[in-house]
């Protein structure tokens, strides 16, 4: 609510990237390249070894006729299905599957890491555009003062998409076992025929896999460009002219509907199909939650940085408090979706669904639990108090935890399905994250210089300048 008892002077601010910030972004990229190079040089390029559990019952699924380990490895399949030896069931995960470390070309690990980071940055940047659209639709006044930050972040999403897309083009045969299966052209009754992959082939095929995300990104980019052009036009409009604002609301509504229904498709194609036998109706929302809370965190960190450099003078502790509340609240939302997906699969007890969690819980138990610690317990416990949500140092620490936590979240979506057991985050993974993180920071800082930092002609800029959370 507005104070209404004094006038705040609203003036335009033009950001220039400090030399120190440029050195930081470039240094981060260079350090990342060095670490990634060391990780590649020290990578174990030997052949992967078979791995199995003692006293493990393996269930043969009626829908999959791939029975020997050689065929499973050739198809890139991480769940090896053999003869059912009885009714013994794990109390946590029901019917058993046996997992084998997959033999992959050494470069697969590099491309999988590029896919992970590219996908995360793509989804986060797109979520920043969704943040802008939501503010328009909701007629939100508080966020007008920070509007330029998510707008700048959103310009990176075509770059993030390109990074992930290149990794997929180069290494899709080794990242996605269904791509190899598709090339076999098996029909029902032939050895190795897979009924689940055959049933999904109308959607899960190479043409859809490559073309549909490109079409979606083109649509999102056009709508985002239109919103940006309206915002630019508003900057030079006469005071009191709300025509551009009203058009922005309409285009924001259109973008939000399209984004809401189609973002899950990219998650299904690029992430969920790594475990192609797996089904989850919540996976699209889960990926949105990961991107959304990370985007809110990055918005907060950039706002804090600009404030520390003397910019965004009309942004107060009230705005920071709201961003802190968003980080806190949507960390809980992410946990709700994470737990809901887990509980539905645990309760349903369907073998092809259970194997997804079985490998992650049994072979990656540390990472499975770390995910909850980084993405729920840390932000929940640290940001619980009012003062912590208004403290730049605390928010920066929690922000760094959340960014790494949700990188780790995407890593856990990808790596077990691609490689099977035995992988962990090392220098290559950290180096890849830092490399593209530095590129992302440099890009966003440069994007912030393209326009004034204050949306001086936004109809709610005065309300935003007087924003008060009321507590």
Give the SSE layout.
Layout: H1 19-41, H2 69-74, E1 79-80, E2 98-99, H3 107-137, H4 148-154, H5 157-175, H6 177-184, H7 195-200, H8 206-235, H9 243-270, H10 283-308, H11 317-348, H12 351-362, H13 365-382, H14 392-419, H15 427-448, H16 461-465
Antiparallel strand pairs: 1-2
Helix pairs in contact: 1-15, 3-4, 3-5, 3-9, 3-10, 3-14, 3-15, 4-15, 5-6, 8-9, 9-10, 10-11, 10-14, 11-13, 13-14
Largest sheet: 2 strands, antiparallel
DSSP E strands, number: 2
Instruction: Note the overall shape.
Output: globular
Strand content: under 5%
- The end-to-end span amounts to 11 Å
Tally of helical runs: 16
Low-pLDDT sequence parts: 46-88
- What is the domain total for the residues? 1
Proportion of residues in helical segments: 55-70%
- Evaluate the radius of gyration: 24 Å
Strand order of the largest sheet: 1-2
Class computed from helices, strands and strand pairing: mainly alpha
Spell the H/E element sequence.
HHEEHHHHHHHHHHHHHH
Mean pLDDT: 86
């Amino acid at each position: 609510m507005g104070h209404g008892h004094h006038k705040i002077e609203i003036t335009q601010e033009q950001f220039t990237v400090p030399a120190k910030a440029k050195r930081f972004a470039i240094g981060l990229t260079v350090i990342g390249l060095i670490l990634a190079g060391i990780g590649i040089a020290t990578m174990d390029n030997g052949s992967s070894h078979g791995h199995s559990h003692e006293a493990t019952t393996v269930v043969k699924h009626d829908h999959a006729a791939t029975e020997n380990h050689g065929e499973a490895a050739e198809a890139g399949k991480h769940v090896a299905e053999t003869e059912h030896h009885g009714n013994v069931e794990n109390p946590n995960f029901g019917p058993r599957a046996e997992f084998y470390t997959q033999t992959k070309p050494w470069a697969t690990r590099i491309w999988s890491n590029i896919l992970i980071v590219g996908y995360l940055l793509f989804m986060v940047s797109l979520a920043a555009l969704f943040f802008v659209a939501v503010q328009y639709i909701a007629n939100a006044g508080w966020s007008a003062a920070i509007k330029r930050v998510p707008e700048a972040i959103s310009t990176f999403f075509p770059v993030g998409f390109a990074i992930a897309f290149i990794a997929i083009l180069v290494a899709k045969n080794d990242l996605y076992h269904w791509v190899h299966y598709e090339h076999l052209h098996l029909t029902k009754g032939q050895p190795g025929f897979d009924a689940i992959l055959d049933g999904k082939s109308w959607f899960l095929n190479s043409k859809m896999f490559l073309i549909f995300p490109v079409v979606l990104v083109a649509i999102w980019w056009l709508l985002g460009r239109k919103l940006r052009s309206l915002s630019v036009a508003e900057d030079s409009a006469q005071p009191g002219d709300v025509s551009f604002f009203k058009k922005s609301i309409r285009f924001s509504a259109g973008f939000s509907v399209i984004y809401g229904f189609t973002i899950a498709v990219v998650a299904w194609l690029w992430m969920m199909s790594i475990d192609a036998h797996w089904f989850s109706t919540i996976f699209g929302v889960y990926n949105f939650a990961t991107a959304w809370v990370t985007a809110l965190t990055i918005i907060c960190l950039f706002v804090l940085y600009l404030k520390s450099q003397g910019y965004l003078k009309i942004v107060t502790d009230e705005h920071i408090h709201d961003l802190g509340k968003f980080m806190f609240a949507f960390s809980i939302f992410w946990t709700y979706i994470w737990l809901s997906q887990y509980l539905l699969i645990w309760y349903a007890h369907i073998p092809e669904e259970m194997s997804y969690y079985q490998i992650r819980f049994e072979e990656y138990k540390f990472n499975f639990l770390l995910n909850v610690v980084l993405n729920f317990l840390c932000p929940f416990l640290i940001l619980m108090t009012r003062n912590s949500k208004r403290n730049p140092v605390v928010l920066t620490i929690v922000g760094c935890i959340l960014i790494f936590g949700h990188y780790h979240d995407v890593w856990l979506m990808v790596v077990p399905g691609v490689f099977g057991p035995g992988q962990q985050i090392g220098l290559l993974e950290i180096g890849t994250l830092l490399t593209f993180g530095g590129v992302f920071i440099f890009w966003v800082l440069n994007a912030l210089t393209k326009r004034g930092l204050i949306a001086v002609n936004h109809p709610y800029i005065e309300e935003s300048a007087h924003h008060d959370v009321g507590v």
